[in-house]
Amino acid sequence: DDAKELNEKKLLSHIYKTMLKTGNFHESLTDTGIFPEYLLQMVKIGEQTGKLDEVMDSLAGYYEREYNLSQTIKHAVSYPLIMTVMMIFVILILITKVMPVFYQVFKQLGSEMTGLSRALLIAGEFLNDHFIVFICILAAIIAFVVFLVKASAGQKMTRAFLYRFARTKELSDQI
User: How far apart are the C-alpha atoms of 32 and 26, rounded to whole Å?
Assistant: First the structure.
């Protein structure tokens, strides 16, 4: 009754109804199909040993630590990522807007840009002339990176599952 969201109410109602039918908390959680296997196995162990309250406390601490770790990683990665994006934006502005001004100054003084500065000027002119193509290529690269991250997330989840499985013994020994 205290659940605020409709999905949460449905889930808790489903668990309650299954508990009334089976009398088994592990089966009630398994029947929902949304809880991780690690949690389900730990609940099963807790029910079998009669220490379900201790198992649930351990699981709460475990998932809280896991959440805090993921938040820390997100914060640690987001700041350098934001700084990198800003740096790229500033460099693009310098190449496309400032370098042509320097080129005009050099031209008025009767001199030419050479080497790296000339290459940057040509790159800036190319970006100005082909801005739409550049944006399309950038979008394709971002989509590809997102795809790779999603694909590697599956591998990371497998590793995380194996880590959790290995920790099952440790948590079982604590209980």
Answer: 10
pLDDT bracket for residue 44 (50, 70, 90): very high
3-state class of 144 per DSSP?
Answer: helix
- Tell me if 61 sits within 8 A of 174, measured CB to CB: no
Name the one residue in this structure whose structure tokens are 């389900």: 40
Which 3-state string (H, E, C) describes 78-112?
HHHHHHHHHHHHHHHHHHHHHHHHHHHHHHHCCCC
Digit-coded pLDDT (tens) for 50-69: 898 999 999 999 889 988 88
User: How would residue 153 be classed by pLDDT, with cut points 50, 70 and 90?
Assistant: low
- Count the Cβ atoms, other than its own, within 10 Å of residue 27: 17
| Distances in whole angstroms, Cα of residue 19 to Cα of each of 7, 13, 46, 47 | 18, 10, 16, 13
CA atoms of 76 and 81, how far apart (whole Å): 9
Is the CB of residue 92 less than 8 Å from the CB of residue 127? Answer: yes
Cα gap 44→39, rounded to integer Å: 9
Decide if 8 contacts 14 (C-beta within 8 A). Answer: no
Mean pLDDT (the chain) is 82
Q: pLDDT digit string (tens) for 117-139? A: 888 888 888 888 888 888 888 88
